[in-house]
Amino acid sequence: MTAPLLAVRDLRTTFATHSGRVGAVDGVSFEVMPGEIFGIVGESGSGKSVTALSILGLVPQPPAKIESGEILWKGTDLRKISEEELRHIRGSDISMVFQDPMTSLNPVYTIGEQISDVVRAHKHVSRAEAHARAISMLDVVGIPNPRQRVDDYPHQFSGGMRQRALIAMAIANDPDLIIADEPTTALDVTIQAQVLDVLKRAAETTNSAVILITHDLGVVAGLASRVAVMYAGQIVEQGTVDDIFYRSRMPYAWGLMESIARLDQRRQGRLRPIDGQPPSMVNPPAGCRFHPRCPYSEDKCVQEQPALVELGGDHRARCHFVYRPGWFSPAERLVEPSSSWNERILAREEEAERVETASRGEP
Amino acid sequence: MAGYIFRRTLLTVPVVWGAVTLLFLVFFVIPGDPVQVLAGEKAVSPQVQANLEAKFGIDKPWYVQYEKYWVRLAHGDLGESYRSSRSVNTILGSTAPASLRLAFWAIIAQVVIGIATGLVSAVKRYSFIDAMTTVGTTMLVAIPAFVLGYVLIYMFGVYTFQHSFPAWAKFPVQGIGPNRWGLFVIPLGDQWRYLLMPTMTLASVNTAVVARMTRGSMLEVMRADYMRTAEAGGLTRRTVILKHGLKNAMIPVVTLLGLNLAEMIGAAILTETVFNWPGIGSSIATAITFLDAPIVLGLSLVLVLTYVLINLIVDLSYGFFDPRIRYGGAER
Amino acid sequence: MAEAPPTARQTGVVSPAAAILTDAEAGAAPRGDVWRRFRKNRLAVAGLVVIVIMVLGAVFAPLVTFFSPNELGPTSRAKPSLQHWFGTDVLGRDLFTRIVYGARVSLKIGILAVLIAVAIGVVVGAVTGFYGGVLDGLLMRMTDIFLSFPYILAAIVIITVVGRGERSVILVLGLLGWMPIARLFRASVLQAKEAEYIDAARAVGCSNFQIISGHILPNAIQPVIVYGTIFVGTAVLTEAALSFLGAGVTEPSPAWGLMVNQGRSYLFTSPHLLFFPGAAILVTVMAFVFVGDGLRDALDPRLR
């Protein structure tokens, strides 16, 4: 059993806001294996970006504060090392690709200069060598004419190209882990697929693992091998991609599956968004944080917060009822007979069916 | 880039033409009796009158005068004072160096002290230095140059003498002193003691403005995403701030430095008068006391042209700071 | 407060009155709010207090002083004492009295100059901003040319030609000061012109003049008010500078700048001759700058 590259244990990060201290990341734990692509999925405000920034110590320490937890990088706790040692890791062992390529590049320096800066921050190489490295990185990410374009300024690149340039910057020092925070959110849909492909190839070229953070399930499905689903600052389900898409056990994950259109499954009826809004993190709900929006919540859910329950292999889910008989995910419900479903699930589905048929009668 | 340089320089031409014409209008067309104006407050003898008429064509229609005016300018003839019979060119020649030296050091002070203070103030926000800077600059902005000048003169040139302070605290406060310079601008020997107070006075207001502007600009820049990218790349904090942050922050500050120049010319007139620093400013001040129009006209012309030129240089330097201007904003 | 006229939504019709109401909602800060925020700024409040004291002092000058400003006295350059609070000047005139009367001069010049500048600036800015076109381009070129002259220098140049004295100073300051105001106001007008409520007003048939005065003016005037306040300070300062140089008001006017000039020669022996008028200039200018700054911060919608 190989040792994990990165092991985050019980990470807690808070923010000071006008309304009080907000627990943006509240007890998050996960592991990333060498070379794998690990997805973190969640809505805005679920804490996924803050988790990523916390790993590299990039959250601004006032007003944020990493309260507790361990961030074990190849065995070393990143929270315990000095700022200078952390700096050595950033951009070289662990690098990051940010969301908005428009604003993430410095407008007054060329792309080449910015990539060179990152290279020379970690190795004593000459300007010329760093420049050559920049050119070859631009080539890896598929930018045409890299020799000319390396001396261009960011405003001369299109959005997709800028994101590729950011990826080039991230792999310039052969990192072992790339954290990509919503790398395609700010891009046109048509460009998204290209950039994701670039990211995948870049990771393969450097044999690095990737933490892919996104709110888009489609992105995760195509690329990741293991996924964690975050909600309200916590991981609510975790497992392989198949576990999450086909065998999830937590109603929030079900909600996510039901709200997207999928080509791999026949489905009747409409997409079902999850009712309600993510909770305010200043005063998160007591008990299970999802209970106000969960169609299956009971008294127990209001009073007691569920722990992450082991389900075999790497699969865990944060729900009180994971072992109830017939607690099937939407994918399973397509193949299992309805008689074997959990009675509450059955009731809800029948109700939904009724509403749907009735509404179809309307012009 | 060449296009930008060309266009911007071209814009200067109408401004220069307009300024020169304006001065012409002020001195030759507006006054009821230009002869009297040109001669100053003294009574006009018939000989002087004839002289003036011949030279300036005062009795002729205005367009002839205008033409003569440009012809003279083309010959570099800026006129001469009838009060003192010295040509403006002579005055310019003897006073310009002093003003240039003073201006040089004042600009250095503004830029270096202003930017450094603003930078530190922004990086160490809410610290003691920041608080002091904010309050200090707010007040400094409102202090008139000549009041500040006399305060300094009194403190270091009168009080310290009268109340036996150590020698280093006693400053000479009038005149330019030995007037010894190396490389045109470096004060030699004791020269710096004469230079310090006038420089501080001249630079004061603008230093405060530059500091405030730098601070504001830097605070905004520090919130930018590209700063975070640089930090994530493992660059040292120093590199991130000084290399990536400062260049962006300087863009609006450069505009300011250009505008400041106008302020400085006005302040220079006052400062040179207060400290009896024999530069262009104090010459104008003396000239106005006697209503000596040719000198005022000639020196003003030079100052205005200098101002326009410097503004041009400042505008062109944008290209260095902001590549988006150099290469034109719109791209694919 | 009288009941507000019905909004367009209520009546379904856009009347000019309703359009004006929307105007108020569009961007101007409510009055009470502005005052409250202004009060929080201690420097600004202090400045306001100073200005009020100054104005009162100037208006009621004869009541606050014991001498006449031009009354020659026996003791020349006396130090401050119980009899002469600020001492006396070279000609034995009571300094305190002269300073108080000097406030009259400064305020008169400052306020009149600003009024002239604002009047011209607002009209020019409105016309060019609203109508645009060739007129706009021409006037903007002209202001560029004027602005290539540093303020004091331009004032000096003109005074050389038209002569010294209070009236010259007021005219010169006013005539040279309208340009930034025109620029400022023009920018506001351009911005306001694009707003939708203008289209609404037009649709109802308001004339251009009505539109300018009723809708654009109230909003666009704000930056001008801020600038105008600070400009009073600048005008006072420039007048002092001119008088100091001998290009401003003339003897026997108790202008502070003149007094500073006279005090120069006695800096060593009787510094008070220079410092009291200097302090007066300093305090006045600072007061106007702080009030102007405070006003700007209080009116700025972004800071809410």
Strand order of the largest sheet of chain A: 6-7-8-3-9-10-12-11
Topology-level CATH name of the largest domain in chain A: Rossmann fold
Secondary-structure element string of chain A: EEEHEEHEHHHHHEHEHEEHHHEEHH
**The CATH H-level homologous superfamily of the largest domain in chain A:** P-loop containing nucleotide triphosphate hydrolases
Topology, number of strands of chain B: 2
Q: What is the strand content of chain A?
A: 15-25%
Indicate the CATH class of the largest domain in chain A: Alpha Beta
Share of residues in strands of chain B: under 5%
Mean pLDDT of chain B: 80
Overall average pLDDT of chain A: 87
Domains of chain A, number: 2
Helix-and-strand structural type of chain B: mainly alpha
The ordered string of helix (H) and strand (E) elements of chain B is HHHHHHHEEHHHHHH
Calculate the terminal CA-CA distance of chain B, rounded to whole Å.
18 Å
Secondary structure layout:
The complex is a heterotrimer of chains A (363), B (332) and C (304).
Chain A: E1 6-17, E2 20-32, E3 37-41, H1 48-55, E4 64-73, E5 76-77, H2 83-89, E6 94-97, H3 101-104, H4 111-120, H5 127-140, H6 146-149, H7 159-171, E7 177-181, H8 189-206, E8 209-214, H9 217-223, E9 226-231, E10 234-240, H10 241-247, H11 251-258, H12 299-303, E11 309-310, E12 316-317, H13 330-335, H14 343-360
Parallel strand pairs in A: 3-8, 3-9, 6-7, 7-8
Antiparallel strand pairs in A: 1-2, 1-4, 4-5, 9-10, 10-12, 11-12
Helix pairs in contact in A: 4-5, 5-7, 7-8
Chain B: H1 2-29, H2 34-39, H3 46-56, H4 62-74, H5 88-123, H6 128-142, H7 145-162, E1 181-182, E2 186-187, H8 191-222, H9 225-232, H10 237-275, H11 280-289, H12 293-321, H13 323-326
Antiparallel strand pairs in B: 1-2
Chain C: H1 8-11, H2 16-26, H3 31-40, H4 42-59, H5 61-64, H6 95-131, H7 133-147, H8 151-162, H9 166-193, H10 196-204, H11 208-245, H12 256-264, H13 272-299
Helix pairs in contact in C: 2-10, 2-11, 3-13, 4-6, 4-13, 6-7, 6-9, 6-11, 6-13, 7-9, 8-9, 9-11, 10-11, 11-12, 11-13, 12-13
